[in-house]
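subagent[fold] <- orchestrator: predict structure for attached chain, return tokens only, no commentary.
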Amino acid sequence: MEKGFHVKSTFFFLQESKKLNLRAPREWGLSLGRYRFHDPEVARAIRMIDSAGWEVGLHGSFESFRDFARLSGEKHDLESVLGHPVAGVRQHYLNLEIPRTWQIQKQAGLSYDASLGLKAGVGYDGIPLFPFEPFQDEFVVLPLAVMDGALFSTVSDTSARLTALTRIVEQAEAKHALLAVLWHQRFLNPAEFPNENSVYESFLRLALEREPWVATSAQVADWWRTHVGGKGH
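subagent[fold] -> orchestrator:
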């Protein structure tokens, strides 16, 4: 889909290690994603995405936001498949313990985080408009404005969702802000999500009408360091 719009994004790959607890149904979703980066089909997909010019990032497992050994191990596993360093990370369920998580990520050799965002809403309510460096160095945080699951759970129909997205795009344009969007591939499946699968494509259309700069997370972080870092905005 993105290829048709001539844009590229970041694919964050998850290697979940949390074991399934059959006695806790509410936690079953936390154990999803229990593939391994080295599984042949997964490794093939990772390399294909990377070679086509999209970015491959690390989707830190559920507990890794407070576990350096776990996060660094996942980064090592992903890099061994890619054959080159991984720049950034998004934590599962947007888990953050500030500033500890960012310190762990930085210690693991990651140069940006993309986990700071709303879990139960969309937009910039309490979310920074711009990237920032929490330690006044090369480590950059890329705030998140829209997560698909939060949009679908708080806005009931397609028309209202597109209205909400249009409002956020207009705000980002007016403020010259970063508009970072998290979209899970499963929501593009019409068989599973007949009412949600077209929203991302519609979002791309309405956003691209304004001729924004569209980039991967690593490209945004690099641009920020080069042009703004430590100098405000």
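orchestrator: received. Logging for downstream: Residues 116-233 form one domain. The beta strands are 10-14, 55-60, 88-91, 112-113, 140-141, 146-147, 181-182.
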